[in-house]
Amino acid sequence: MADIRPFRAVRYNPEVAGELGQLVTQPYDKISGEMQSRYYDANPHNLVRVILGRKNPGDSAVENVYTRAAGDLKRWIEAGVLKSDAAPAIYAYDQEYAVPGQPVVVRLRRGFIALARIEDYAAGVVHRHEETLAGPKADRLELLKATRAHCEQLFMLYSDPAGEIEGAIDQAAPSAPDVVKDEYGTRHSIRKVDDARAIGAITAAMRANKLVIADGHHRYETAMAYRDYCRAQGLASERSDYVMMTFVRKESEGLSILPTHRVVHSLVGFDWNGFLSNANRYFEVHAVPATGDPAGWAARFAPMLEASGRSAPALGVYGGRGRLALLKLRGGLNLAESLPDVAEGLRRLDVILLHRLVIEQLLGIDRQAVREEKNLHYVRGCPEALAQVDHGKAQLCFLMNPTTIDQVWENALARHPLPQKSTDFYPKMLSGLAMYWLDNPLGM
């Protein structure tokens, strides 16, 4: 049972901090070096200094990126750059965006921000859909210990086919929204909902819900670790048992998942024709023309891959110099025999077949090498994946259809997490629109 509650969000005070668009950022794990520099230059109070500060050569145990983050946050609160809302509220959060690669397709993703009790996965309330790595969690835990603040959003899915919760938000007394457009053109709008009747309806409706993490697995598991740390150190309080989340209903037409393509490099003795011959064990292999402008044939190939994927799992593979093939899973293949250690609900997912049959068995890249990204890395855009092959930075790339919302939801509830980078929910939720400060003197 999901325990949701309103809270006193800490937010930027534009009268002191400046324009909101110069203060908020993309999530920490999506910030490149160039973006970090741009955020630093945008405003001395930009949140990047807290969530992804610069490391210095002279950093030590007493002066480092985490202590500087805590110091900045403390000074900003004392100076009124950041200000706590006086009364607990939830926060309606809407994102209007154009789908990448389809600029004429504009969608609206609606959600709301609130606190939720941190639950162990075994409790069956919060479900993950992807595996995590230890390194990012260790980094985020040190930051949380230093700042005692959750500054970034956890993106959670819930089920509400009739849209009752969105209806309750719509019926609440309106308030003026904060609006900002990010560097990708997405319009973000956040407004406070402190209507007691609406909050009561929303928290009651959420009690029967299960939650699936869409984005933010590392941050959620960091919140779990921090809760446990506080308990072990005798610092436990009700506040450390909760974390800030943004909730989006899984039936929303505004949800978009983008594919994440795989780029493979540094294979010893790789042979394109030999690879396709071996792939025939599992897939129907169809050669596809790939001459001329890559943007042109890639645009023609995308709908072909999508159409093939409707009837059976399908992958695209590009080996440069016009070598393009469509791999479609053979009908009648005994996947229980080929993948005996894979749960039935996962066996027909494109990303599982790519990793277990192609990457591991056909290319001989073991799981540890995959985790360490020794021979492959992940690319969102098809043009970038193709260019890396054409420019000799990779030997081949695999072009993917996106994982569906139903596949994410059903496998998460069945406790069958997907491999890393199986999903790319778009757009990302901005960091800094609302923050949960555990030491807020006004209360939760």
Could you describe the 3D structure shown?
The structure is a single chain. Helix content is 33%, strand content 23%. With 444 residues, the protein is of the alpha+beta class. It has 2 domains: 4-256 and 426-437, no CATH class; 260-401, Conserved hypothetical protein from pyrococcus furiosus pfu- 392566-001, domain 2, CATH 3.30.1760. The strands form 5 sheets. Strands 1, 4, 5, 6, 8, 9, 10, 11 and 12 form a 9-stranded mixed β-sheet that branches. Helix 4 runs parallel beside helix 5 (134-147). The longest helix is centred in the C-terminal third of the chain and has 18 residues, at 294-311. The radius of gyration is 23 Å and the shape is globular. The mean pLDDT is 95.
Keywords:
15 helices, 6-stranded antiparallel β-sheet, alpha+beta, 21 strands, globular, Conserved hypothetical protein from pyrococcus furiosus pfu- 392566-001, domain 2
What is the makeup of the main sheet? 9 strands, mixed
Instruction: Give the strand tally.
Output: 21
Kindly give the count of domains.
2
Shape: globular
Q: How large is the count of helical segments?
A: 15
The helical percent reads 25-40%
The residue ranges in which pLDDT falls below 50 over 5 or more consecutive positions are none
Any idea what the radius of gyration is? 23 Å
Mean pLDDT: 95
Structural class: alpha+beta
Percent strand: 15-25%
